[in-house]
Amino acid sequence: MQPLKGIKILLVDDEPNILQFLELGLQNEGFEVKCAPDGITAINMIKNFQPHVAILDVMMPGMDGFEVCRMLKKTETIAVIMLTAKDEVDDRVKGLTLGADDYMVKPFSFDELLARIHARIRNQFPNLFGEVVIGPFRIDDRRKEISLESRVLELSPTEYELLKFLVLNHGLVLSKAMILEKVWSYDFGGEENIVEVYIRSLRDKLNDKDRQIIRTLRGSGYRVDLS
């Protein structure tokens, strides 16, 4: 994974051993890290620190991780990864409903957490990378260019945003409704069929006649496969 400079991560957990372990590990990866032992301290630190990613423990005294997540997502542009000691579906649903971007169950692998942090930054702060290389694609958000195997694709602004969204979320099934929300935004008043039109155009430009890159999953949406 690419080293990232200037990325700020806020760790919020009432277990000192976990805070120390994650702080050292993430600092060694080049992140700027601050720790909070509880939710209220975390909220008070946000304005001055302005982290890109918050890693929140769910079960904390006073203000729990759910409430911290709700408050952060209400006022900040931030990626939230929630940690829990139990794999409860209701907890995951509650966290995601409040705006959490990802969810991990303790105990977890540090390498997996690192991969999820990178994924969240790629999705929510792609400009921090300058260029992102994923499989055969190179995304240059500053130049608004996407290359496939060193060939710069001729894309309209909407095609660029759509292909970037698909590639950054490769391996995931993306529904038409989700694509409309993320690429065209909430105020789009047209039909979902517009997605099909743009997907067809992208396939032509990718020379993806056999639909091996952008796959259609009937009734579910689309998925980019890079393997």
From TrEMBL:
- The record places the DNA-binding region at 129-226
Enumerate the SMART domains for this protein: REC (SM00448), Trans_reg_C (SM00862)
Q: Does the keyword Transmembrane helix apply?
A: no
**Gene3D superfamilies according to UniProt:** 3.40.50.2300, 6.10.250.690, Winged helix-like DNA-binding domain superfamily/Winged helix DNA-binding domain
Superkingdom of the organism of origin: Bacteria
Please list the residue ranges annotated as the OmpR/PhoB-type domain: 129-226
Q: Does the keyword Transcription regulation apply?
A: yes
Any idea where the Response regulatory domain is? 8-121
- InterPro entries in UniProt: CheY-like_superfamily, OmpR/PhoB-type_DNA-bd, Sig_transdc_resp-reg_C-effctor, Sig_transdc_resp-reg_receiver, WalR-like, WH-like_DNA-bd_sf
What keywords sit in the KW lines? DNA-binding, Phosphoprotein, Transcription, Transcription regulation, Two-component regulatory system
Q: Which PROSITE patterns match?
A: OMPR_PHOB, RESPONSE_REGULATORY
Q: Which residues carry this modification: 4-aspartylphosphate?
A: 57
Q: Which PANTHER family match?
A: REGULATOR OF RPOS
Under what name is this protein listed? Response regulator transcription factor
Q: Which organism is it from?
A: Paenibacillus agricola
Which lineage is the organism of this entry classified under, starting from the top rank? Bacteria, Bacillati, Bacillota, Bacilli, Bacillales
